[in-house]
């Protein structure tokens, strides 16, 4: 593993989300300078403007010169760019443009933060990196196409590439999570809106645990040219998480659980809910990841227990609720 001086500068493309914040925090904790890249400067200034290690840049994925300029001077790029849930066809298109810009800029390493979507239904659990990639959904096929572009780019034009797959995630302030409503409900004393079934054991990764792993991977040359998994701290049900959050808040759980037929019905009026129907199989037949290959490569991985993760997520929801209550 390289030391910090050898590792060079890291760029976070699509840094404004939860994963970007986690990785940025880990880079700063290691004393490393990094660049955050997004479409708009204002949210980047808000989140990273106070960190002396952070350099802020914007880009336009449709402008090759803009992509190359955003990547220039970086040794490693971490790709975190999201697309609207109903526009997944953009994933491979945007990846192709980003790869061209990174090659033009002379980036040496690329880490794509991926998902379990390309596997399709789990044929075994837990799932190792050798599991067949046979997605039966449109979103899975688009993520697979994105992954293939990244993996095919390895060893060409001086670029080394890696795909790091994560399960569903949660954590303080992570609003794009199945579990966010449970923490909000417990913090406010309102009803949590959840998607069922909620009694099936599921795997979630605590987002603050992701950053230190990615920071290490940027300094681990032997990690590239492959896919690796980062698993959560075992499995737990959505109901257990919600009940724990409400108990910690001193409240009785109030849950509204939407079934797949309800999602179909709500989807008639809400395009985003309509898109969830396709991926509902992950709630009935979850994909649980095996990350023994990653641990063998970089050593022990800190994994926050669900009890601690729930407590911290609830505290963050309460802190966010307090200013709203004062304003009201």
Automatic annotation (TrEMBL):
Annotated GO molecular function terms are: aldehyde dehydrogenase (NAD+) activity
Pfam families named in the record: Epimerase
Q: Name one GO cellular component term.
A: cytoplasm
Concerning Gene3D superfamilies, the annotation shows: NAD(P)-binding Rossmann-like Domain (3.40.50.720)
State the InterPro entries in the record: Epimerase_deHydtase (IPR001509), NAD(P)-bd_dom_sf (IPR036291), NAD(P)-dependent_oxidoreduct (IPR051783)
* Boundaries of every NAD-dependent epimerase/dehydratase domain copy: 13-220
Q: What is this protein called?
A: NAD-dependent epimerase/dehydratase family protein
Which organism is the protein's source?
Answer: Trinickia violacea
């Amino acid at each position: 593993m390289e030391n910090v001086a050898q590792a060079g500068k890291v760029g976070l493309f699509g840094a404004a989300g939860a994963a970007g914040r986690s990785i940025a925090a880990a880079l700063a904790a290691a004393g490393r300078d990094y660049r955050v890249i997004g479409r708009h400067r204002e949210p980047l200034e808000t989140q990273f403007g106070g960190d002396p290690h952070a350099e802020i840049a914007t880009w336009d994925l449709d402008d090759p010169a803009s992509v190359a300029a955003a990547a220039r001077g970086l040794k490693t790029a971490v790709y975190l760019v999201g697309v609207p849930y109903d526009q997944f066809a953009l994933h491979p298109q945007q990846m192709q443009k980003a790869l061209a810009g990174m090659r033009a800029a002379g980036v040496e390493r690329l880490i794509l933060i991926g998902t379990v979507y390309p596997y399709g239904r789990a044929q075994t659990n837990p799932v190792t990196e050798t599991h067949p990639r046979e997605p039966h959904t449109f979103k899975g096929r688009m993520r697979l196409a994105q992954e293939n572009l990244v993996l095919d780019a390895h060893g060409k034009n001086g670029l080394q590439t890696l795909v790091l797959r994560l399960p569903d995630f949660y954590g303080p302030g992570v609003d794009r999570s199945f579990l966010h409503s449970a923490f909000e409900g417990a913090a406010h004393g309102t009803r949590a809106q959840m998607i069922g079934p909620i009694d099936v054991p599921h795997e979630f990764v605590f987002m603050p645990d992701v950053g230190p792993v990615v920071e290490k991977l940027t300094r681990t040359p032997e990690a590239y040219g492959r896919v690796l998994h980062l698993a959560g701290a075992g499995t737990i049900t959505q109901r257990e998480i919600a009940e724990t959050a409400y108990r910690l808040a001193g409240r009785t759980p109030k849950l509204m659980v939407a079934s797949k037929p309800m999602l179909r019905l709500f989807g008639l009026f809400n395009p985003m809910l309509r898109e969830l129907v396709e991926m509902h199989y992950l709630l009935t037949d979850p994909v649980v990841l095996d990350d023994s290959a990653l641990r063998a490569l970089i050593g022990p991985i800190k994994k926050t227990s669900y009890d601690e993760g729930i407590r911290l997520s609830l505290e963050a929801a309460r802190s966010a609720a307090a200013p709203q209550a004062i304003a009201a």
